[in-house]
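User: Write out your own:

AI:
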Amino acid sequence: MKIAIHQPNYLPWIGFFDKLDQVDKFVILDKAVHSKSGYINRSKIKSPQGSLMLTVPLKNKEIPINELQIANNSNWQVNHWKAIEANYKKNIYWNAYREGFEQLYTIKWDTIAELNIALIKHIMTQLHITTELFIESEFHLDFGRSNDRNANITIHLEGDIYVSGSGARAYNDETIFQKNNIQLVYQNFQHPEYPQRWGQFQPNLSIIDMLFNCGPETMDIIRKHRV
């Protein structure tokens, strides 16, 4: 039983869904403390000038993710949707996916976690990813912190394999997983190069860039690049 855990990023990049697709159960870590350097409230799309950062304004930033309130005193939803529409409306698969995303941008979201989880679930549906999704806060349990937290969540879900992002090698304590009879493996994500508009290929964008460019072939391309 493969388990993966990740914070609920805003319009996540392709690697997020690569990891989500290759496990049996995936946990959204919404009780983690927000890091300003992360991508909880920001994501990149492509424009004629290169990558464009979309940022959701927050009222508070030094608390658990599921308590982060969106600053709805601005027109960020309108602005984000206008940016997405302006940069992708001429893409071949725009009409195939436009409506579902547009509806989500008409809802007034109170917290960033609610928004991001709704977007992640919607994208999973479009990509036909059937991995079972769990929200950490819905367990109503304290799993601890850091490596203990990941190991305890894996045990709780009866997993024996924990799939970690490669960037976590520096701080993963393998002995904690070994002690609990959990095999620690690392995602070996190979970023696919796919057709994009406007010149040179730009990696590390939101999954929506690939979706609007590649449509139903998106997951097939990701899986073919998986090692």
Summary: The chain is about 35% helix and 15% strand. The radius of gyration is 18 Å.
